[in-house]
Fold:
Amino acid sequence: MSLVTQSYPKTSWRRFKSSAFRVSTLAALLFVIAPALWLVLGVVVRAVPHWQWSVLTTLSQGTSGGLENALVGTLVIMGGVLVLAGSVGVLAGIHLAELAHVRKNGRPSGTIFRLAIDVLSGFPSIVLGYVGYVALCVGLHWGFSLLPALLILSMMVVPYIAKSTESALRQVPTNYREGAEALGMPVGYALRKVVLKSALPGIVTGLLIALAVAGGETAPLLYTAGATNSLPSFALLHHPVAYLTYYVWTDYNQPTAEAHVVSYDAALILVVMVLTLLVVSRVIVTRTQRHSESYR
Structure:
């Protein structure tokens, strides 16, 4: 009886700590979700009452008109970043996870590359934008155009893609690689058919983050893409490109109510684009994990 009496306070204290930990994690989750919901609802409440579908098919006229040029320009920029940064970032992540583990002189061969990626990810976006303006737009005489914007945005998001790809590949069980080697698969074939397929959800998540960052940036594009009221000409040089964040930032600071409506519409389109990317990524993750044991 005394043993039960003595152990009861300890059991109660452990239960209290467990409950306190659960409450703190829930509070932290709410702390993350609440600002996101507040921002999304704020945009929706301000944009929906004045929304007109013609904004998607009408060119901008300064602080009025539609956002067709900005929408098309944003999609072009995001597509270009997906091709440039996606290919470089995924290949860099594959190298760090699969090929840089060989030690040279007692040190991992990928240390210097990981350090460079960490340094690049720490640069402020406005600094990269200014460097792009000085080096590309002015130094190489490219002017405000699509190519400088794609290069600078790709430099910004490559670290995210490389890190997420490396992390996803390292989470693939070693048994998969050993099984593929035991079956006589070449290293490259096993990497494509076994390892990359298993790591696809993590890689897709990294690409999603890259697209979200690229679509939501403003400062680097102000220095490199410029602004225009025309549709993108798909010329890489000497032709400015419109994008949605320019109108969100510029028109919101204008004194007219019409400009504010354009700003809210641009913000709403961005929110819908990001949510669409989230849904598509979850569908891809669900389909790729349908037959995995952890998903069951």
In short: Residues 2-48 form one domain. The chain has two domains: 2-48, 54-288. Strands lie at 103-104, 107-108. Residues 252 and 260 are 5 Å apart (CA to CA).
